[in-house]
Amino acid sequence: MSKWLETAIFYEIYPQSFMDSNNDGIGDFKGIISKLDYIINTGFNAIWLNPCFDSPFGDAGYDVRDYKKTAERYGTNDDLKQLFDECHKRGMHILLDLVPGHTSVQHEWFKESMKAEKNEFSDRYIWTDSIWEHPEGVSCIRGISDRDGSCGVNFFSNQPALNYGYANPTRPYQQKPTDPAPMATRAAIKDIMKFWLDMGCDGFRVDMAGSLVKCDPEYKETIKLWQDINGYLKSYYPEAVMVSEWGEPKYSLQGGFAMDFLLHFGQEGYNSLFRCEEPFFSKRGKGTASVFAREYYENYKTAKENGGIICIPSGNHDMDRLARGRDHDELKCCFAFLLTMPGAPFVYYGDEIGMNYVEGLTSVEGGYNRTGSRTPMQWDRTPNYGFSKADKRMLYIKQDNSPSAPDVLSQTGDENSLYNTIRQLIEIRKNHPALLNYSEFEILSFEYPLVYRRYCEDEEIIILINPKNETAEYNLDKTGEIIYSLGEGAKISDNKVTVPKSGAVFIKIR
Ligand code: GLC
Ligand code: CA
């Protein structure tokens, strides 16, 4: 286990939308560096940076053209190294986004692999032997090469699938994960990881980590592959952290990842809390946390067996903003939960001020409906909310022009703001060992209020969360002292706890 992950609280930065230092309308490394003090003052001590590599940006950088070179618009490799150094100076850690499953169609490997003549890269991607045959288990691109064959794609049609083999090959074009070409792909990815770790990054968030080996329903071969890669990495960098975008901790954590996310795809639990017709976290109070609780337990058990943890992110660049359809009281409730659960918290930039999902935008760089969650950060009330001094029309994505658009500066000055509530919650988490990432967890009730216990050797805290717009009561079989409450009227008498509407109560038992 990496020591630093025990107390890590992450902030996800979408580089193009965070802070623009040279006024071209797009965020960059120097902009991020200028805001590191903001990040650390808010309470975060770790960063996940979305892809910042050379790319034609067909999928906002998840289509990498050169894995070892940063995109010019963000700055040079040296600037990125400076970002690593500035993070470390402040005691922070930073994860890059690794996209091991596919590249851009413009990657040199792909250009070589499209050629009719056999070469070193012919089998770097998944190709069938004839244009008339589709690769199994994936979509494909066809008809763009001299080479006779169809090439598998993982996501958009401009993201050809790298070849890590098939779990159980049945056709001549399908290779075993341990055949020479899939092993060469694996070696190339290891080499890329080592390149950035040598430069100073602290690990990776791994894109679509469950998708590498094809037709692998139980993920047996994919898990083996990650065990190999994670093992290799740990031999060089024992403190490096690998976090998977997989959404199924019961599988991913067996592969040696330190942490996996609960996500909007895969299982239902996460959406049932935040993103469905009647989410649990709503004043309407019509949801339930029961689906989540059941799933979470199952995953939690395997996580423990594998020494891993599970992250419940506030959102990310692929989902609707947490603030879509929620007011700030509701958001505070969400964060009282997110910041007291086990696993390292991940907050998506702007969620700490409740940035809105911006409706009605035209897609930018393959964002489609995700574009509204990727708008430039709102720092203050100066033009472009202080994100950039460029002309408005040059901004990477149009910003929120609604009267309710929040900004950092205004919220900093308001002690009851969402921002200051989050700061306070982070502070509490840091000061209570029972609330840290690897401390224990048990659910006591999953209706309104949601009640759970966090504990470790030295401490026990009961958390009660009541998103509903109506006071809730809960009978505790223990007594304790209220150390934090959200909303008006929290009390505890004769073991009965009153949890305010859209509120929360934290009780220290020992
Ligand atoms: C992941 C990324 C997403 C990207 C996709 C393809 O889900 O989070 O933004 O489009 O992978 O790389
Ligand atoms: Ca810029």
Task: Provide the descriptors you would attach to this structure in a database record.
single chain, 510 residues, alpha/beta, TIM Barrel, Oligo-1,6-glucosidase, domain 2, Immunoglobulin-like, 3 domains, 8-stranded parallel β-sheet, 5-stranded antiparallel β-sheet, 12 helices, 20 strands, 25% helix, binds alpha-D-glucopyranose, binds calcium ion
Number of domain units: 3
Return Rg in Å: 23 Å
CATH class label of the largest domain = Alpha Beta
> Can you count the beta strands?
20
Protein described:
The structure is a single chain. The protein has 3 domains: 3-100 and 181-429, Alpha-Beta Barrel (TIM Barrel); 102-163, Oligo-1,6-glucosidase, Domain 2 (Oligo-1,6-glucosidase, domain 2), CATH 3.90.400; 440-509, Immunoglobulin-like (Sandwich). The chain is 25% helix and 17% strand. The protein contains 12 helices and 20 strands. It has helices at residues 29-34, 36-42, 77-89, 108-113, 180-199, 220-236, 249-252, 269-274, 290-305, 328-338, 408-412, 418-431; strands at residues 10-13, 46-49, 53-54, 66-70, 93-98, 139-141, 151-153, 203-206, 241-244, 259-261, 309-311, 346-348, 440-446, 450-456, 459-466, 472-475, 481-486, 491-493, 496-499, 503-508. Helix 5 (180-199) packs parallel to helix 6 (220-236) and helix 10 packs parallel to helix 12. The mean pLDDT is 97. Bound molecules: alpha-D-glucopyranose and calcium ion.
